[in-house]
């Protein structure tokens, strides 16, 4: 079932690129921007994560924790983070539990891959309530960062 604005974000625990567990409910008290992306080291995904990297001060200014989430394992996430100087948390949903919970799954993807995460953006307020939700069916499209930023500003 699709995640909708106004509902409590489903909780999860995933490993970050340094193999530390991160639990979503542990971030309450901060606004959260969750960015699901299909795969590290692909063109649009790299562009998106680097855009966020380059604008991290605007997210810090509104007390927003940024999470990038893909099905890549923690080792791939670490390499992706290092090579692109990513300055926010990348999480591995290698078992695909969270992309299924958030209903952001490409059942079939390029090169015969199955169950790859869609590009999606969710903004959560300090209580973990979804205040913005966008799921993109076309992997080469980027989320509406203007709308994301406006939502975050309204929460601070």
What does this molecule look like?
The structure is a single chain. The chain has 156 residues and is α+β, with helices and mostly antiparallel strands. The chain has one domain: Glutaredoxin. Helices cover 28% and strands 29% of the residues. It has 5 helices and 9 strands; from the N terminus they run βββααβαβαββββα. The chain has helices spanning 43-54, 56-61, 74-83, 97-101, 145-155; strands at residues 13-16, 21-23, 31-36, 64-70, 89-92, 105-108, 114-117, 119-124, 130-136. The strands form 2 sheets. Strands 2-1-5-4-3-8-9 form a 7-stranded mixed beta sheet. The protein has a two-stranded antiparallel sheet with strand order 6-7. A hairpin with a 5-residue loop joins β6 (105-108) and β7 (114-117). The longest helix has 12 residues, at 43-54. The protein is globular. The N and C termini lie far apart (29 Å). 34% of the residues are buried. The model has no long low-confidence stretch (mean pLDDT 94).
